Amino acid sequence: MTPSISILIAAHGDEPHLVNSVQSALNQDYPDFTVILTHTLPVPPAITALADQRLKIIPVPPTSTPYQAAVKAAPGEYVYCLSAGDHFYQPTSLTEVSAAAQTAHADLLVAKVIRLENNVLYFPQHKQPQPRLLTTNNFALLARFSVAVRTLSGNLIQRALLTEVLATTAPNTNEQILVYRLVQQAQHPVESSHLAVVWRERSDHQLPALDWEALPPLSPLKQLLPPAAQRIATPPVPERISLALGIDQGVEAHLAPLLYSITQTNTAPVDVYVVATQLSVATQAQFAWFNERFANLRVVHTPLPAADYDMIRQLADFGHHGPLSVYYRVFLPQLLPHLDRVIYLDADTLVTGDLTALWHSDLHGNLLGCVRDDGSGVTPPPEDPTDWWAYKVLGPAGKDYFNSGMLVFDLYQWRKYNLGVYFYEFLRDTVNLYLLEDQDALNFFCQGAVTYLSPAVNCVTKSLQRNPRTLLDTTILHFLGPQKPWKMTFNQPRVQWPAIAHYRHVARAWAQAYQPELPVISILLDAALDEDYLIEQLESLLCQSYGHLEVIIVTAAPAPAPESPLAQLLALNEPLHLVCQAGPTTAHRWQTGLAAAHGEFIFLLGPHDRLTEPTVIVQLAALQRKYAADIVTGYRLTYLPARQVLRGTANSGRVQELSQLTLPQLLPVGIGEYQWTPGHLIRRTAFKHLNWTAPLIPQLLVQAPKKIHWEQNIWFHRKLSDH
Q1: Which ranges of 146-254 does DSSP label H, i.e. alpha helix?
Q2: Which of 34, 144, 202, 694 has the most beta carbons within 10 angstroms of its beta carbon?
Q3: Among residues 23, 35, 33, 29, which one has the least CA distance to residue 3?
C-alpha cells in the first residue's frame, strides 16, 4: 500500500516559474498526494486558476515559517519538499522516489538534484547504484560533494519527523543544518540515486553553497578524546624500534630492498611486523635469510586474523574499490597488543637514515606522528594548492592534510580510548567518498589529533621538484604514485634520478648478498649518444631486477658533456660503463665492449633496441640455469614510429630446446630471432674464435652446444622505416 504524500512548496508568491512548479507537482502519476503551497505575498492568478482539488494554498502566519505552516496543513504520511520555481524531472518522479523509500524502509530519503541553466540540464557527475545510508559520520563529507544534503528540495520526509525537527529549529536556520538535524533524528535516512528535482538556477536562485561554519565535525574523535593535555600518558618509548608494513601480493616481491635498507642505515635493533594474509614460499625464505644474517633485524610475519580480514573485506560492499591491504593498518592496535608504539611504512619506501630520532618523536599526546602532504600525490600536482583535493574537502584545514605512507602510531592511546571500534564504523560509513583511500580516512578521522614531523622522515620523491632535498637530508624516501623504481620510469624529472638510482643500488646490493652464486651478466649496448631514445634504453636496463648486472655502453661518439643527462646517469648508476670511440662498425664496438665486460653471460642490444619489462634478465637467467643452456633466445617486438604500429608474436611462455637442430634448421625458427644479434643471452665462451667480419649468430649457434628458445617478447626494436 502506497503512503499518502504531501508536496510542500514554500513560496513568497512572486517566484518566476512558480506556476511550472505547481503544475509539475499536479502532473505526478502518484495515486495519493496533495500539493501544499504556502505564500507570504499574493499568489499569481495563474495558480488560483488551476482549480485542482489536490492543491491547497495557505498563507504563512506572522508567527510561523513557510515550512512550519505547510507541514501543519499537510495531510500526508510523508511530505516531499520542492523549492519554489523548480519542478519535477518527469511525471513518474514521485512514484519512483516513494518506491525507493519503501524499499529502503527510509523515513528520510534525499534524492539527487539536476541543475537547469539557460535551458540546459546538468546531471550529477556521480550516481551511486544503491541507496546510501546517511549517518552523522558521512553527512559532513557528503555536504562537501552533494548539493542534495544542503537543501530540503528533493527530500521525502516522514511528516512526523519533519514536524518534530521544525518544532525545535529556529526560523532562520539554513537548510543545510535542517537536513543534518533530520539525519540525526531519523531512524533510517538514505541518500537515493534517483533524479527527481530540476533546480532552475538563476541569479536569485542558486544551488546552496557549502556552509563551512555550519558543518558538523568530520569525525566523532573530539567527543571521544579529552584535550591533549588531559590524555592518558603513554609509557616510555623502548629502545627497540618497531616497524609495521601492510602488504598484499602486489608489493610482496618488493619488500626485500626496504628491509635491506634498514640493515644498512640502523644499528639499533629493529623489529619489522609484516601484516599479510599469506606469504609466498620465496618471501618466507627471504625473511628467514634476514633473520639469520642480521642481528639487529627481526622480521615477523603477522597474519591478519580471518575475522579482521572479513571486516576489511566488507568495506568493498560499502564502496571501497582498491587493494584491501591499505586498511590493514587500521587493525594495528589489536594486531600488536604488546606494543605501545609502532612506525608504519608503505611498501614503496626506502630507509635512508637512522630511525632512532623518528622512533623517539614526541607526539605531544596525539594519536599519530605524520608529515604534511603538499599535493604531490595527485597527478598532475595542482599549480594552486587550493585546487587540490585536500582543500576541497577540508577547506582551510587542507594545509594540514598529511601523507599516510609513514605514520608513528600511539597504539596505547588507540587501545585505551577504544578508537578502533569507532574508526571502523567511520570507515564503513564514509569509504565510498574517498579519493585517496586510507589516507583520506586517517585525515578525516584523526583531524586535530596528530603531530607534524619533519618532511625528511617521509620524503615523497614526487615533491622533490617543488622542494629539492639531498639524500643525505632524508630518513625515509617514499616513491609515491604509479611509477615505482622497480618499474620502467620513463620521463621522470631529473631531480628524482638520485632517489631512483639509490633505490636500485640498494636493491642490487641486496640481490647480490642474497644470491652471491649467480653469474654476472653483461649487457652490451651499441649506442648513439645523440639520440633521445638512449635514456629510454638505459631505463629499460637500469630497472632490471637481476642484481648481478653490468651495462657496457659502446659508441663511436666522443664522451658526453658533463651536464648532459647521460653524464648524470653514469655518475648515479654504478652498473653503467661507457666506452667511447670504440670503433667505426658495430662489430668493432661489440668486440671492444666484450673486452671490457666481466660477465659470464652476454646480452647484446643495438642503438634502436630496449628490453620490454623489468624481469627479462631474471627470467632469462633462470631458464639458463634450469637447462644449463649456452644460448637462451626470446621473441622480438618491432615498433614502426611513423605508423605507430607494433608488430610481434603472441606470448605463449613455451620453452623449446633446439640443441638437436642443425644450423639451416635453426635460422628460420620463430619469426627470425636467429637472424638478429640482439635478443640472446649467450655464454661468454661462445664468443671465442669468432670471425668478427662475418655474421655473428650462425657462428655463435655452432659454438653453443645447448640452445633454448623461449616464446616470450623480451626485447623491443624501434624500426625507423615503415617496412
Answers
A1: 159-167, 175-185, 221-224
A2: 34
A3: 33
Residue 711 class from Cβ within 10 Å (0-12 exposed, 13-18 middle, 19+ buried)? middle
Q: Are 535 and 429 within one domain? A: no
Task: Indicate if the pLDDT at residue 79 is higher than 50.
Answer: yes
Rounded CA separation 680/521 (Å): 12
Cα–Cα distance between 77 and 74 in angstroms, integer? 8
DSSP assignment letter at 207 = P
Considering the domain architecture, whether residues 406 and 295 belong to the same structural domain is answered as yes
The pLDDT confidence band at residue 723, using thresholds 50, 70 and 90, is: very low
Last residue of one domain, picked from the residues 455, 483, 507? 455
Q: Give long-range contacts, CB 8 A cutoff, 24+ apart: 56-65.
A: 65/166, 65/171
- Are residue 179 and residue 253 in the same domain, yes or no? no
Please tell me the distance from the alpha carbon of residue 164 to that of residue 416, in angstroms, as a whole number.
38
Given a contact cutoff of 8 angstroms between Cβ atoms, the answer to whether 406 and 438 are in contact is no
- Give 62-67's long-range contacts (Cβ < 8 A, gap of 24+): 65/166, 65/171, 66/10, 66/11, 66/38, 66/40, 67/8, 67/10, 67/38, 67/152, 67/162, 67/166
Residues 173 and 263 placed together within one structural domain of the fold: no
Within-domain flag for 281: yes
Residues 529 and 627 in one domain: yes
Asked whether residue 481 is assigned to any structural domain, the reply reads: no
Which class for 256: exposed (0-12), middle (13-18), buried (19 or more C-beta within 10 A)?
Answer: buried
Gyration radius (Cα) of the chain, Å: 34
CATH of the domain at 387: 3.90.550.10
Take residue 404 and report the three cell numbers written for it.
Answer: 599516510
Rounded to an integer, what distance in angstroms lies between the CA atom of residue 446 and that of residue 411? 14
Q: Is residue 341 very low, low, confident or very high in pLDDT (cuts 50, 70, 90)?
A: very high
Burial of 45 (0-12, 13-18, 19+ CB in 10 A): exposed
**451 & 527 share domain:** no
**246 in the same domain as 191:** no
Does 624 map to a domain?
yes
What is the span of the domain harbouring residue 408? 241-455
Question: Which pairing describes strands 521-526 and 601-605: parallel, antiparallel, or unpaired?
Answer: parallel
Contact 550, 599 (CB under 8 A): yes
Q: Residue 299, CB half-sphere, CA atoms under 13 Å: how many?
A: 23
Mean pLDDT of 653-675: 83
CA atoms within 13 A on the CB side of 238: 13
- Per-position DSSP letters for 350-410, written without gaps between them: EE-S--HHHHT---TT-SEEEEE--STTSSSPPSSGGGSHHHHHHGGGGGG-EEEEEEEEE
Task: Give domain status of residue 504, yes or no.
Answer: no
Q: Looking at the structure, do residues 11 and 138 belong to the same domain, yes or no?
A: yes
Domain's final residue, options 173, 199, 216: 216
- Span of 24-28, 127-131, 199-203, 257-261 with lowest mean pLDDT: 127-131
Q: pLDDT for 407-450, tens place per residue?
A: 999 999 999 999 999 999 999 999 988 988 999 999 999 999 99
Give the total residue count for the chain: 723
When divided into structural domains, the chain yields a total of 3
- Residue found by looking up cell 563529507 in the block: 141
Q: What's the whole-number mean pLDDT along residues 509-534?
A: 93
